[in-house]
């Protein structure tokens, strides 16, 4: 079975010795100043959900409304609340969402998991059973 380190080395066409495991996350690897997140499909979905939960305040108000019990005309109100509170709106926005698993899944369907997991280019790459995301 291929390891995360081997998958990344193959993807980048480098030797495993060229890569280093991050000191704070065993799914994060470094090549020089570049960082790569290497995840299985299951772990990628877990991290996706975590990232979506942390950034719920930044989602389009209509998307939030579509995943809540509020009527469509509440989108303007939610948008104004988001604009005035920014990150501080997150807990309230999370309370509006009926099903976080579906919300995260729909977000990934709309924008791709890479959008939420790859801070560098928004791309999701695959090598064997692993998904690779450049984070910086």
What do these coordinates show?
This protein has a 5-stranded antiparallel sheet. The protein has one domain. With 136 residues, it is α+β, with helices and mostly antiparallel strands. A hairpin with a 2-residue loop joins β2 and β3. α2 packs across α6. It is built from 7 helices and 5 strands, in the order αβββααααααββ.
The strands making up the biggest β-sheet line up spatially as: 1-2-3-5-4
Nearest-integer average pLDDT: 97
Write down the Rg: 18 Å
User: Helix count, per DSSP?
Assistant: 7
Shape designation: elongated
Number of domains: 1
Uncertain segments: none
Let me know the number of strands: 5
Q: Alpha-carbon distance between the termini?
A: 28 Å
β content, as a range?
Answer: 5-15%
Order of helices and strands: HEEEHHHHHHEE
Q: Biggest β-sheet: count, sense, barrel?
A: 5 strands, antiparallel
Helix content: 40-55%
């Amino acid at each position: 079975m291929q390891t995360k380190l081997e998958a990344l080395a193959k993807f980048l066409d480098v030797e495993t010795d060229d890569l280093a495991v991050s000191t704070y996350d065993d799914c994060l690897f470094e090549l020089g100043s570049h960082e790569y997140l290497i995840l299985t499909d299951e772990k990628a979905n877990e991290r996706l959900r975590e990232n979506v939960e942390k950034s719920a305040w930044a989602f389009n108000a209509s998307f939030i409304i579509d995943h809540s019990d509020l009527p469509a005309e509440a989108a303007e109100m939610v948008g104004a609340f988001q604009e005035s509170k920014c990150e501080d709106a997150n807990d309230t926005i999370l309370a509006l969402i009926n099903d976080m698993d579906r919300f995260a899944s729909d977000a990934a369907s709309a924008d791709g998991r890479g959008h939420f997991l790859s801070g560098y280019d928004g791309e999701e790459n695959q090598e064997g059973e692993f998904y690779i995301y450049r984070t910086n």
